[in-house]
Amino acid sequence: MHSSRRSILLCLSVAAIFLSRAFPALAQDPDREVLIGYVAPMDDAEASSGAGAAQMAIDEANAASIRIGGAAVTFKLLLQNDKADPRTAEQIARYLAKTSVVAVVGHWTSSTSIAVAPIYADAGIAQLAPIAWSRRFTLAPGSSHFQGVGSDDMAMAYAVGYLSGHVHPRLVMVIDDKAPLGVSMADSFEKYAKAAGIATSRQSVSTQTSDFNPQLQIAKTIRPDMILFTGRSAQSAAIARNLKRMGVSASLMMTGPVVSTDFLAGINHSDEDLYAIVPGPPADGSKIQAFRKRYMANFTRAPAPFAMFAYDSVNTLIAAIRKADSLDRQSIIAGLYGVNHAGLTGTISFRPDGTLKSPTYTLHQTEKAHWTVRKVFRPPA
Predict the structure, then answer these.
(1) Residue that wins the pLDDT comparison between 79 and 29
(2) Which residue in 3, 135, 265, 306 has its CB near the most CB atoms, within 10 A?
(3) DSSP states of 266-315 as a string?
(4) CA atoms of 271 and 281, how far apart (whole Å)
(5) From residue 14, how far is each of 3, 8, 20, 353 by CA, in Å?
(6) Tens-place pLDDT, residues 70-112
């Protein structure tokens, strides 16, 4: 009886070994789940659209059946809402450091990204910020943070160069929103404007205000040729809507995600002379247009202007993981320094300080109630 039972068990063992060799798929372990953090103010339409684009990148990577270290993996986003608040962002960063996330895409704003950079650096977690373009971000302590767009300082240098050569403003009123990015941009603009012989007049507002009447009253008095506002899109819309009502004839340059038909419709744009300088190439490229079609098929609406940077950031991070062929956090950081990813916005690779090697910027102007590309800025080859 015992002999018969041993014989049966031996046969079953042999059969199992045979089946595992003949049909390897039957013996495979389930895919290993790889967590990537995505942190942004999820109640913000731009950042929420970015989350959708990030999930698209995850889904497309999973459809490609990627293997890391010889094992099949499935990527998953761990979404967190930092409410664009640095204190909340710090709490989330400390939480993520204790989880199994291998890297973080985020945070969305420059102020939150700067606040959390030392936390991720201490934890040895790669932080790729899609749209934090303050130059202060990559100056933060540590070597694990990477900038998904070019710096604000370079953007302002290009903007002043264009204005000096084509628009010739005599006086520019510069309004910042007191946030790190807005202040940094305004400082850079004034620095380059002074060198170009353009006079400036500086004003500041709260990041929460929608009342620009005091600043526009000053503009009526000093009569600038242009107003530069370095805040976010909702406030940009508020100031743009009130130019004509306040009798201010100055053109307006903005730096937020405003280059969309929705923005112009929201401000009832007619003949106001608007400019915007934003990171990335024009949206009419074939890759970006194909991305927009896929996004609309998934979400039945167009992506927000900066959503493509979240898509590129996730794909760049996955490319770095594949290059490292490891899920070790430090190996992924090393992989990011060596990555060379062909993204929607161009070739993405990083300098030793975490800045993009070849950032692109586009300057737009309104013409006949539409945004028109006036200049694409690329660093010399």
Answers:
(1) 79
(2) 306
(3) HTT-SS--EEEEEES--TTSHHHHHHHHHHHHHHSSPPPTTHHHHHHHHH
(4) 25
(5) 16, 10, 10, 56
(6) 999 999 999 999 999 999 999 999 999 999 999 999 999 999 9
Helical (H) or strand (E) element with 111: helix 110-123
Q: What are the extents of the domains in the chain?
A: 31-149+284-349, 151-278+360-375
Distance CA 36, CA 75 (A): 7
CB 305: neighbour CB atoms within 10 A? 22
Give Cβ neighbours of residue 177 (< 8 Å, ≥ 6 apart). 183, 204, 205, 206, 207, 229, 230, 231, 232, 235
Kindly tell me if the per-residue pLDDT of 26 is higher than 50: no
pLDDT band at residue 381 under the 50/70/90 scheme: low
Cβ contacts of 186 within 8 Å, gap of 6 or more: 174, 175, 176, 202, 228, 230
Task: In whole angstroms, give the CA distance from residue 358 to residue 347.
Answer: 7
Helix-, strand-, coil-residue percentages of the chain, each rounded to 5? 45, 20, 35
Counting beta carbons within 10 angstroms of the beta carbon of residue 317, is it exposed (0 to 12), middle (13 to 18) or buried (19 or more)?
buried
Between 141 and 380, the more confident residue is 141
Q: What phi, psi does 225 have (nearest 5°)?
A: -80, -25
Architecture of the 31-149+284-349 domain: 3-Layer(aba) Sandwich (3.40)
Residues 205, 203: Cα–Cα separation, whole Å: 7
**All residues at 6 or more sequence positions from 133 whose CB lies less than 8 Å from its CB, including other chains:** 110, 147, 149, 150, 151, 152, 155, 181, 279
314: burial class by Cβ within 10 Å (0-12, 13-18, 19+)? buried
Q: Tell me the residue type at 6.
A: R
Q: Is the pTM of this model over 0.85?
A: yes
Q: What is the mean pLDDT of residues 46-54?
A: 97
Angle, CA 83 vertex, CA 231 and CA 124 arms, to 5°:
100
Pairwise CA distance, residues 293 & 254, whole Å? 27
